[in-house]
Amino acid sequence: MKCNEIITFTSMKTRILLCLIIAATWACSSTSESEAEPETEDKKSEMVMAEVSELAALMKEIHADAKDWRTALLNGETVTADTDIYTRLTESEPTNKNVEGPAFNGMSQHYQSKLSAFLAASDIELAKKEYNNLVSACVQCHQNYCHGPIPTIEKLYLPTAQK
Ligand code: HEC
Known about the structure:
Elements: H1 2-26, H2 38-48, H3 54-74, H4 86-91, H5 102-120, H6 124-145, H7 150-154, H8 159-162
Helix pairs in contact: 3-6, 5-6
Bound molecules: heme C.
């Protein structure tokens, strides 16, 4: 009997832990599982489509860009793209009003400077280094405003240039 009790207790703990993790990630919508389960994600995005803020939509866009850039760099190609991101970051309507303000603008400016440096990189080795600095700028802002997607963002780092 005692053994059974222990088993029940352990699975309860696991369930509680799972609930906590789900609650924590839910608070600031994360796309980390979207690649693993495309079907579920499709249904989920249909349901929440109307609630996606302008800023969240912009985030999806810059996340997709960064993925493309990563692939290009791994293929030895440098990247050209639109350099202006500051205005878009600061003028897009966020889900949560707390996101607006001087601190957010500062983070946006920091991200802008990393993007400009990355796009100005003349050779591939420098571009790879600047690209990883750009990903760090994503993570830094997220540490302040939106923890959920950080594990997904960290997958964008180029392992080769990290050494
Ligand atoms: C200046 C701050 C800032 C920077 C820089 C930033 N983010 Fe975000 N990001 C946010 C905020 C705030 C949200 C929440 C947006 C909302 O819900 O309105 C967010 C949301 C997201 C989301 C979730 C979008 C969704 O589906 O709801 C992803 C993914 C994401 N960011 C990836 C990135 C990536 C990748 C980068 C760098 C290429 C980046 N972010 C740079 C602040 C930032």
